[in-house]
C-alpha cells in the first residue's frame, strides 16, 4: 500500500474514539500485541472504542483503507489467537480492544443474557447471581478474567461437564463479503432497527422492550451435551474446537467476523454443593470410575478435575502467588495483576540491568516467604497417591456419589474424602492455577532448559487407556511434564518442558502423530490460535466467513494474504 498515509489513518481513528484511546507507542501497544502465554507481532495501533457503534465506525475505516482488523477482548487466550503473529502481513494491522464495552443485559428474568464485546465471565457471574443463575463457566477461564465473546469465538470448553463448549446461534456481528463490502448481521433475535447505527445504538442503550425480544428456534447453548458426554462407547471425542456440529456464525469464528454481542443461556445455581477429593495410584481406577459415573449415575457431576502429583507439586511451588491473589482478592483482580506484570517486564526490559521475565522472578521470590496454602488432607493425599481427582456434585447427586464412592473403594485401590467448604475452594483453585506453573518454571529457568510445549487434546469417549504413556524415544526428550484436565469430557492438558538442545517442533510433530493414532482431536478447547494448524473443515469455515481474509488473517496457520492467496 504505497499510498497508505499512516498519520491520516491514525487521525481518522482518533476522530472516532478520541486520541487517548489510540495507542501507537511500543510501550502502549505491548500488553495488547503480545499474547498471555504465546505469540506476538507488530500492529500499527491499538484502538479502544467505548461503544458498539464506535467499533463499527473503526471497522468501516479499516475496510475502506484495506487495513487488517484483529478483534480482541481480554487477551487471556493460551494460543495467541487474538494478537498479531509475526511481522509478515501484507497489509497494515490494527487491534481493536473491546474491554471498555462490558455491558450485560438480562433477558427473561435471568434465563438468558446478552453479553457485549468486552464483557467478562466473572462479571456475568456477579450480574446474574441475584437471579439464582450462573453462566456457562464459573471456574477456569473466569479465574483469569476471560471474556464471554472470546469463549464463544473459540468454542471454548469449560469444566462444567453438563454444559459442553461455549456456543450460541444468536449473535450480532460484522462480516465482510467476497466483494469487500461490510455488513452487520443481526442474529440476536431482538428487533433493534434497520441501520447499523440504529441497531448498535439501540442495543447499547437497551432501547428495546419485551415484545421486541423473540425466541427463535436457535440454540443459545450446547443443550445436547449431557447426552453426548454420557455416550461412553462412542469412538469420537465429546467436544473439541473444530467440531463441525458447533461451528455457526460467531461460534468458533476465531475473530473471522467482528462480534458485537452474543445471547446465551444461563443455568440455575444448585442449592447444595459437595466436593469429593479422590486419590489413587492407578489411572485405570479413575478410568473405570469415569465410565461408571457417566453411564450409571442419575445425576451427573458438576465438574471433575484431574491433577497428576507432579502437577500438584508444580502448582504448589510456582502458582502460589496466583493462588493467594485469587483466594484473597478475587478472580476479578487477576487481569490487573497481569497488566502489572506486563508493565513491570517492559520497564525491566528498558532498564537492561534487570533480568528477563523480571516480574515472574520477583513474584516467585516473594512467594517463598509465604506459608503453605494447601489443606492438610490434600497434602496427605499428595504423599499417598499419584493421581488426584476433584469431583463436585450438587443437590440430589451428592448422596448418590457418596454411596458409590464408599462402595467402590471397598474393592478398588485408593480412597476419597468429603471436602469442607475451605478445602473445596482451595482444591478447585489449586487445580486451576496449575495452568500458570509451567510458564513460571520456564521463565525462571530458561537458561538451563529447552522450549515449552503445550498440548490440548480430546480423546475419544470410548478410550480406556487415557493416561499418557509415550514411546521411550519421545519420553527421554522431556525435562518436565505436567498433566491436568477435565477427565469426564476426556479433555486433557499436557504441558512439557523439553531438554536443552531438543528440537521442540520436531518433538511436537511426534506427539501429535502419537495422538493421531489414538483418534484424538486437538486442540480440544483452547482453539488453534497461531499454535495449531486448522484442519480442512475449520479452515473452510474461516474462508466462508471472511472471503477477503481481512479479519485476523493467519489464524490456524492459514494464509495471511488478501483473498487467501
Topology, pairings included?
Elements: H1 6-17, E1 22-23, H2 26-33, E2 45-47, H3 52-64, E3 68-72, E4 93-97, E5 104-107, E6 112-116, H4 121-128, E7 133-134, H5 148-153, E8 171-176, E9 182-186, H6 196-204, H7 225-229, E10 258-265, E11 267-268, E12 273-280, H8 283-296, E13 303-308, H9 309-318, H10 320-329, H11 334-351, H12 358-367, H13 376-384, E14 387-394, H14 397-408, E15 415-418, H15 421-433, H16 437-445, E16 452-458, H17 472-475, E17 478-486, E18 491-498, H18 504-517, H19 536-545
Parallel strand pairs: 2-4, 3-4
Antiparallel strand pairs: 1-2, 5-6, 6-10, 7-11, 8-9, 8-10, 12-14, 12-15, 13-14, 13-17, 16-18, 17-18
- Report low-confidence residues grouped into runs of 5 or more: none
SSE-based structural type: alpha+beta
Largest sheet: 7 strands, antiparallel
For the record, the CATH architecture of the largest domain stands as 2-Layer Sandwich
Rounded to the nearest angstrom, the radius of gyration is: 23 Å
CATH H level, superfamily name of the largest domain: D-lactate dehydrogenase, cap domain, subdomain 1
Number of domains: 3
Descriptive overview:
- With 565 residues, the chain is α+β, with helices and mostly antiparallel strands.
- The chain folds into three domains: 6-98, 2-Layer Sandwich (Uridine Diphospho-n-acetylenolpyruvylglucosamine Reductase, domain 2), CATH 3.30.43.10; 104-268, Uridine Diphospho-n-acetylenolpyruvylglucosamine Reductase, domain 3 (2-Layer Sandwich), CATH 3.30.465.10; 273-447, Alpha-Beta Plaits (2-Layer Sandwich), CATH 3.30.70.610.
- It contains 19 helices and 18 strands.
- It has helices at residues 6-17, 26-33, 52-64, 121-128, 148-153, 196-204, 225-229, 283-296, 309-318, 320-329, 334-351, 358-367, 376-384, 397-408, 421-433, 437-445, 472-475, 504-517, 536-545; strands at 22-23, 45-47, 68-72, 93-97, 104-107, 112-116, 133-134, 171-176, 182-186, 258-265, 267-268, 273-280, 303-308, 387-394, 415-418, 452-458, 478-486, 491-498.
- The strands form four sheets. Strands 15-12-14-13-17-18-16 form a seven-stranded antiparallel beta sheet, with helices on both faces. Strands 5-6-10-8-9 form a five-stranded antiparallel beta sheet, with helices on both faces.
- The two termini are 17 Å apart.
